[in-house]
Amino acid sequence: MEINMYAIFVCKNKQYKANIGKTIKTEKIEKKTGEKIEFNQILMINTNNCVHIGKPYLKNCIVKGVIISQKKNKKIKIIKFKRRKHYKKQQGHRQKFTEVKITEIIKN
Q: Does the model's pTM come out above 0.90?
């Protein structure tokens, strides 16, 4: 394993940068806490300043991780207001997310 190794991968149509040992917040993944997960859609891998770019994805490359927790973000408030019209609408939303700890990056 190289020290400066990182990968850019896709999870649910969003891109994330993965370093070994880093914790990443992704959109909710339907797996239980403690389960292992693999990401196969790797866009780019950097190994000691040698960059490999996929067209569109790299073959035989995997980012492995472990699901740490399933949580919700802080509540955001959505307020619609029109002055002098007696109109006010409030709504709240809490987005669910999954914390994944990256354990290894494999490049073949």
A: no
